[in-house]
Write a structure and sequence with these properties.
DNA-binding, 6 helices, mainly alpha, 3 strands, about 160 residues, homodimer, globular
Chain lengths: ~160, ~160
DNA sequence: CAGTATACATAGCCAAGCTATGTAACTATC
DNA sequence: GATAGTTACATAGCTTGGCTATGTATACTG
């Protein structure tokens, strides 16, 4: 009786994507030891891919609130995984930069998680792997687009 | 100096998949109002897809600890989104079942999230949508496999 | 130089995750 | 059929990630 729902094919696949992601995340967390949290890695990934940036921009790009990012940056700083560089010309701001040790920790975590998941996925055909890789690129490009939209919304 | 890391193509794509999922989850959370948490919906999805089951099995299938599931079920029960049915023949156990109102709430949430995400994805080609759909099915089949492995580990 | 806007920090809350432990019920053994 | 072990769920207590509201210091602007 869902009179209002226009379940286009796109909408359906987006919903399924979110749902299956959600379950995959739990699988990844449970098969690997994984004491460290996703938020930490997400933050380092953003810094690695986009380079040093201010805390506020890091929060916007990561899609979390500024106070949440302050906490994450604090945690990362304690572990020595990022560096805080005073922003010359604005004494209020910091440039947050990924530390090499943070990148190494990220790589180690990836190794652990993918090793733990591998047995579950090890009979995928080359085609299937290519399909997954293509999907990753599709989603990545849309995340990038959303980021651009954010920047324009900012400046406009 | 990552002497041990065999970065096979599969491992690479799995790592990218986890990473991009992580960012997509934040995007979905931020573009939709989304006060409700992913764990709630994940639980209802499992119940919808696999039918009523005991709390402990629900925890295992959802890949969370039993106490975590006790809390989730409590929350779901308060909202009237599941039903607890006494297990005839075992007074310790409950059968947890998705309530129609929970399924409706799930559908409503999906509608909201996909509507909010749609603008970011609305220029995907049919091929790209098909690629995403195929990936969803691949991952879903592996989640199913992991679940079977769990059952066998249980009974063995 | 006064007032407003901006950048980050702090306070305080809630939910989701965990481990350790408790309680009640089932099972099996003698 | 009491007793011991096991199982199913609940409770306690902790950490982290997320939020809003607010504080403080710096920058900008009239």
């Amino acid at each position: 009786m869902y009179t209002g729902s226009v379940t286009s094919e796109l909408r359906t696949v987006l919903g399924d994507l979110i749902s299956v992601n959600n379950r995959l995340t739990r699988l990844a967390a449970s098969v690997s030891g994984n004491t460290e949290s996703p938020a930490i890695w997400r933050t380092i990934v953003v810094l690695r891919d986009l380079g040093p940036m201010r805390l506020g921009e890091l929060a916007r790009v990561s899609r979390v609130s500024q106070p949440t990012m302050t906490k994450l940056v604090h945690t990362l700083d304690e572990r020595g995984w990022i560096r805080r560089i005073a922003d010359a010309g604005d004494a209020r701001a910091w440039l947050i930069s990924a530390d090499p040790s943070g990148l190494a920790a990220l790589a180690a975590w990836r190794d652990e998680v993918t090793a733990a998941l591998e047995p579950t996925f090890d009979d995928l055909s080359d085609d299937e792997i290519a399909t997954l890789a293509a999907s990753v690129e599709i989603v990545r490009s849309r995340l990038e687009r959303a980021r651009e939209a954010l920047r324009e919304g900012k400046s406009a």
